[in-house]
Amino acid sequence: MNLEALVEVLLLQGGRNTTLVVTGTTLLGVAAGLVGVFALLRRRSLMADTLSHAALPGIAGAFLVISAFGMPRSLGVLLLGATAAGVLGVLAVQGLTRYTRLREDAAMGIVLSVFFGIGIVMLSVIQNRPGAGQAGLKSFIYGQTAAMSPSDAVSIGAVAAFCLIATLLLRKEFVAVCFQDEHARSLGWPVGVLDLAMMALVVVVTVVGLQSVGVILIVALLIIPPAAARLWTDRVGAMLWISALIGGMSGYTGACVSALFPRKPAGSVIVLCAGALFLLSLLLAPRRGVLGELLRRIAGRVRMATDHALESLYEQEIGVEASPPKRGVLLERLMATRGLVRLGPSGPALTDKGRERGARLRRNHLLWEQYLISHADVAPSHVDWSVDQVEHVLSEDLVDQLERALASRGVAPPTPAEGGR
Q: What pTM was estimated for this model as a whole?
C-alpha cells in the first residue's frame, strides 16, 4: 500500500467497483445507525440479532422454491424470502410474549436459535442436492461486500433515504413509544402499529445488508453505532445523528481498509471498525467516557483537598484550633495559580479571594454540623465525617434551606468565626 493508493480510495477514486462498495457500505452504516437507535431505546437490540438469524431460512426456502420451478437464482427473490422470514420472526416473538408467560428476551432467544437452526438444516439439504451445492448462499452468512453490484448500491441508498425520511416523520411517535408507551396508548396512539413500524425498519435494513456484511455481522451495525452514540449524549435527536455518523464512518473506513488490503474480508473489517469507534467513544466521551470520568474524579479530589486546605488556613487566621491541612507543593502552587493563596517563606497565606472562600467553607461546615445535631439527632462526636463529605457540595439553595430549617427550630445559623468543631 502506498500513499497514492490510500488517497485514491479515500477520495472515491480507486476504481468503479471500489467506489461502489465504499459508497454502498457507508449508506448501509448510516441506515443501520438511524434504525438501531430506536431498537436500542426500545430495548430491542436483541431483536436485530433475531431478525438477522431468522432471515436465513427465508433465503434458503426461496432458493428451494425457485429451484423447484427451474428458475435461475434471483437476488430479489432471495431477499424477498429473507424479508418474509424476518417478518415471521417478529410475529413469532410478539406471539410468544403476548400469549405465554415468556419474557421478551427469552422469546427472542428462542426464535433466533430455532430459525437459525432451521436455516442451517435447509442449507445442508441444498448442499446435498445433486449438482446444486449451496449456490453461493453461504455468502449471506458471512457477507460478500466485494461482490456488490450497482443495483445493490442503489437498493442500499434507497433504504438509507427511506430510513431517514421515516425517522424525520415519525421521530416524535417513535420516541414516545420507546419511553412512554403507556402514555402514548392513553392518548390513542396506535402503539402496536408504531412498534411494528420500528421493527419493519429493522427488517428492511437487515435484509438489504445481508449481501454486504452477512447474517451474523449485520446485527453489529444495528447495535454498535447506537451504543456508541449513547455514550456521547442524552438527547435523542443528537443520538440519531451521532449514531448515523458512526455507522457511516464504520462502513466507509471498513470498506476502504478492505480495498487497500484485498485479502481482508470487508464485512468483518467493517464490524471491527465499528468496534474501534465504540472503544474510542467509551474512552473519550465527555460524560460517560472512562477518561472523562477519571478526570472528573481527579478534579473532585483536587477540589476537596483545596477546600480542606483553605478552610484550615482560614481557621488558623481566626485563631480556631484545627488540624493542620494536608498540603503538598503541587496543591500549594495550584492554589497560588488560582489566586487563592500567596506563597512565602513561612508557607501559604490566604488572599482576599481565598479568605472569602475559606470563610464560606467554614460556615457551610458549621451549618451542616448544626443541622445534623438539631434535626437528625446525631451526636456531636459523630458528625464530623459526614460534614467533611457534604460541605463541599452545598449550593446556595441548599444553604438557604438549611438556614430556614434551623430558624424554624429557633436555632441561629452559625457564623464562620465561631470557634471549636
A: 0.76
